[in-house]
Amino acid sequence: GAGVSQSPRYKVAKRGQDVALRCDPISGHVSLFWYQQALGQGPEFLTYFQNEAQLDKSGLPSDRFFAERPEGSVSTLKIQRTQQEDSAVYLCASSIRTATNEKLFFGSGTQLSVL
Amino acid sequence: DQQVKQNSPSLSVQEGRISILNCDYTNSMFDYFLWYKKYPAEGPTFLISISSIKDKNEDGRFTVFLNKSAKHLSLHIVPSQPGDSAVYFCAAENTGTASKLTFGTGTRLQVTL
């Protein structure tokens, strides 16, 4: 596809369940970001990959959150033992280079609801 | 600690008039600022940006103004069109240290006929 693809589009989880969210960036894009957007808020940075290297994970809210990009393309954000406060839209974005963020392309997000 | 603030959650403007969206920031290390536009059920899309060495950047109907001393920026849309109705996010970054963006909470713009 031409854009950043995220799946699933919607995910409903019971509290305590583990979830995995997938991001397919635009082919050839070096940089990949995950953001969390709570209702009524702006996106908040979670983590950043340059190729397969996770260069910044300072935004991950707890050790229940884990992200990987093993081959430098597809990335997975995993949340263990989900809690209600994890309910949010999780946005993935990619960029062909590592310079300014104006060339950042966002996916449509995965809306996670934890019951 | 909200480092990027958009104090107006919503704005309604008549078609053809000017829309002015405002944004304030507190972190003096920010040196690059961006505006993103978001339609429902879609991800944000880049609209326009400005470096801290400039005070104005224009792209068609969109102009961003930066007042560094006041730590304030604004997005002007002239003339406003119904298709401009969306949520607009202001974002900032420190290009020297990190690649991550800090976003404001957004302003929902409605352009009425």
List keywords for this structure.
heterodimer; A: four-stranded antiparallel beta sheet; 0% helix; globular; B: 113 residues; mainly beta; five-stranded antiparallel beta sheet
Describe what this molecule looks like in 3D.
The complex is a heterodimer of chains A (115) and B (113). With 115 residues, chain A is mainly β. In chain A, 0% of the residues lie in helices and 48% in strands. Chain A is built from no helices and eleven strands. In chain A, the strands form two sheets. In chain A, strands 2, 4, 5, 6, 9, 10 and 11 form a seven-stranded mixed sheet that branches. A four-stranded antiparallel sheet of chain A has the order 1-3-8-7, with no helix packed on it. Chain B has strands at 4-5, 10-14, 19-25, 32-38, 45-51, 56-59, 62-67, 72-77, 86-93, 102-103, 107-112. In chain B, strands 2, 4, 5, 9, 10 and 11 form a six-stranded mixed sheet that branches. A five-stranded antiparallel sheet of chain B has the order 1-3-8-7-6, with no helix packed on it. In chain B, strand 6 (56-59) and strand 7 form a beta hairpin. The N and C termini of chain B lie far apart (38 Å). The model of chain B has no long low-confidence stretch (mean pLDDT 94). Chains A and B meet through strand 4, strand 5 and strand 10 of A and strand 5, strand 9 and strand 10 of B.
In brief:
Chain A is built from no helices and 11 strands. Chain A is mainly β and 115 residues long. The mean pLDDT of chain A is 93.
